[in-house]
Write a structure and sequence with these properties.
The protein has 25 helices and 26 strands. Strand 7 (193-196), helix 7 and strand 8 (217-219) form a beta-alpha-beta unit. The protein has 715 residues and is α/β, with parallel strands linked by helices. Helix 13 (361-368) crosses helix 16. The protein is elongated, with a radius of gyration of 29 Å. It folds into four domains: 7-223 and 434-459, Rossmann fold (3-Layer(aba) Sandwich); 241-430, Glycogen Phosphorylase B (Rossmann fold), CATH 3.40.50.2000; 465-558 and 630-711, 3-Layer(aba) Sandwich (Rossmann fold); 561-629, Hypothetical Protein Ta0175, Chain: A, domain 2, CATH 3.90.1070.
Amino acid sequence: MGEREGYYVLMLSLHGRVCADPELGADADTGGQITYVLEEMRALARDPRVRRVDLLTRRFADPRLPPIHDEPVEDLGDGVRIVRLPFGPRDRYLPKEQLWDHLPSLVDRTLQWLRETGEVPDWLHSHYADAGFVGVRLAQLLGIPLIHTGHSLGRDKRERLLAAGEKAASIDRRYRFARRIEAEEEILVESSLIFASTRQEVERQYGLYENRQRARFEILPPGVDLARFSPPSDRRRPSPLLVHLRRFLQHPRKPPILAIARPDGRKNLQRLLEAYAGSALLREKANLVLVMGHRERLGALEAGAREVVTDILHGIDDHDLHGSVAIPKTHGAEDIPEYYRFASQYRGVFVNPALTEPFGLTLLEAAASGLPVVATRNGGPQDILRNCRNGLLVDPMEPAEIAHAVETLLTDARRWQQASRAGLRGVTRVYSWEAHARAYLRRVERILHRERKARRRRRMVLEQSPSFLPKADYLLVCDIDNTLVGDDGALHQLIDWLKTQPRVALAVATGRNLEQTLAVLVEHGVPNPEIFITDVGTRITYRQRLHEDQAWAAHLRHRWWRDGVVEVLRSHAELRLQEKAAQSEFKVSYYFEPQRPPSLPVLLKTLRGKGIAARAIVSHERYLDILPSRASKGHAIRFLCFRWGLPLDCVLTAGDSGNDLDMLGGGLRSVVVGNHAPELDELRGRAEVYFAKAAYAGGILEGIHHYRFAGAKDD
């Protein structure tokens, strides 16, 4: 029996230890976001309109971690799968800050995987900035909608860390804020829809971004698993956790002040300990229970987590809190609901003191367990407490305010009972995954209806492989000026090699137009290649009858307005339009003086303000090309490979300047010729980019032998 009809959704969540049963709190990247994504997938898959939901994440084989992370597919049942593709070091788990350099290769691996499966998703949904970076590029290449959920935002996080006394240079280096924020700005422009959990997230957190006005937001809070999180069924029966907690607590039946969070400075657990230590009433009436992920040995924790746990241990000792504070080293997945029930049974309070909380899923879990809460006023808790009315908001920087709020709930039995009941009612009414899925699909279906013509074009591209594509197993793609041409002797050696390689098709990728390209190839005695990628990747033409790929042209029209580009940039005195021969439908080309380079962020922001989705490419420190956001040499090559069904590891690219940048690396094997421009030096050190010593076509030949491309022998 075939698969049922319905939508195919591809989600992307790249960092952390993603699996069906994640070890939450195992490190800073394995937390609530993973739970959110897994629950959202399952809820969508339960809707009859959806036939399958795949979650794309990283595949790695770290000997220190469970082997499940090296499994290419993990079937969760009921139309839900985790699909793992390798990117970055194969044998090592990486924190999210170290993934950025490897993300372009995931774009290429995903395209190849989708081509092999023969199916393109109806939409992509990226989670967090790293997945959004990949999602933007996939959506551009596939011509499908991108939905995005931020979970946490770089600008907001940076402000909070600075307010907490961190040094700007230190946090920028540690968290890669420049790359993250740049990606988040791009996501705002390129996404079809951004889901935010709360209105505060849109107004306060996204409000820090320049492109906030260009984005389309919908408020969609997550749900909570009401079958898993529930109040204690029998308050008279002792909690099963009592035995375990007696190791820490002298009087384990005192009301517990419970916090569940990974040991991360942003979770602000040290101030919660300070609030408890500073309140004589709390020390007398309550215990403090801190569930901070897993740790086998303190020394084995990552530096940031180790610092937090060490601070907590010192705080317990400094304030002589032994016998009043529990810090269990580990827990099972089913222990978490039991901790909430334990705190509810003994009339405790749950506290989320994070510096900022994008949403606050733990607050919903507490509410579903009948447990009142005290929460940071920064972020999503404002909306949750407005809907559930089950606690108090506090300034997380003020330990005395945290202590007073906890005291208020613990010492007023009537207020505690009211908050407990209100939380149960609110979470049932507002926060269920079924309601989430219905609202999600209602909003996305509006997007699909609006973009239905583009979806039809996408199906055509996938299902019809053009007959004019070359019948070859390998593709060599070369820039022309200063790469293919420049040394006639080396060029003719390369041509002679190609004549002996019937399985290799030649393509050229150039900033020239087609007429100029044909002329320069004739001038240098180069036989016509199989494919011409001209005008900086904005035009694809095949040798057979010089047929232009109309599907590519239609793909580029997305939010492109050529006359608008010329009009908007007319006021920029540092730019001078190039001659008419250098212009085309999808390319506006300028000169500028090297001593007066334009500010690309300013140019693009100005264009975005007029609704124009564009990219800017600088080459040889004097030429500027403005293109549609979906256009580039690299995108054209990937579009061809996807349509052709050619694996990306059967492609070799060669270039020398900045307008070749995005066709070099990623999943493509690439060579930078010896006479390259300085703007390509940023590619040094990447495994898939070879810097040749020889110049021009000699460098191409050197790269061919280095990679043993198409069976070439290494010299």
